[in-house]
Design goal:
Blueprint: E1 2-4, H1 15-26, H2 34-46, H3 52-59, H4 68-79, H5 85-90, E2 96-102, H6 103-113, E3 117-121, H7 138-147, E4 153-158, H8 164-168, E5 170-177, E6 180-183
Parallel strand pairs: 1-2, 1-4, 2-3, 4-5
Antiparallel strand pairs: 5-6
């Protein structure tokens, strides 16, 4: 089994950020969330206080202003092109995506391009509230073994050293920078 992070790994960019910008262009009411988003941003990124999940839940308030059932298919129609060619060339039937992005955001594209296994952060697609722990760092390893108790990762790909816990349990690991793959 090969395992991949999603954003900046097989997807060129950050899918959550891209979906936020896509939604903002379509639904101007999202601007009403700016004051709480800026406050949360400053608290977490400037003063280094609070949890990242708390910041993300403030950001996900934009979901209140969109029609997720209509907007999500339109988003992926215009952003599917961001899936990197090198991934398609080596894609296998048992590939696994493990990402901190919201599960509801990645499910449609994974299904469309034939990725059968995916784990991501469980976020309510209407409220933006987390249903559990952000799928990040050591949590990715915990979830992997929960779903695949005797699982083995042949090759692991990520753009970030925050995924070192998954790299450590993989037979081989690669750091992705753009379209360049380097040994971990």
């Amino acid at each position: 089994m090969n395992c991949y992070d999603f954003d900046k790994t097989i997807y060129d960019g950050d899918s959550t950020r891209d979906f936020y910008i896509f939604s903002l262009k379509r639904h101007k009411g999202i601007i009403k969330t700016f004051p709480s988003l800026i406050k949360a941003f400053v608290k977490f990124y400037v003063f280094k206080k609070g949890e990242k999940t708390e910041f993300k839940e403030k950001m996900y308030r934009f979901l209140w202003y969109i029609d997720i059932e209509k907007d999500l298919p339109l988003f992926w129609k215009s952003h599917k092109k961001n899936i990197k060619d090198w991934y398609y060339k080596q894609q296998k039937e048992d590939d696994l995506i493990i990402s901190a992005s919201p599960e509801f955001l990645l499910e449609p594209i994974c299904k469309e391009i034939g990725i059968n296994y995916m784990m991501a952060s469980k976020v309510d697609k209407k409220t933006g509230k987390y249903k559990g722990i952000n799928c990040h760092g050591k949590e990715k390893v915990r979830r992997f073994y929960e779903k695949f108790p005797n699982g083995e990762i042949d090759e692991f790909y990520s753009d970030s050293y925050s995924d070192s816990p998954l790299a450590e349990i993989s037979k081989e690991a690669f750091l992705v920078k753009g379209n360049k793959l380097c040994k971990w």
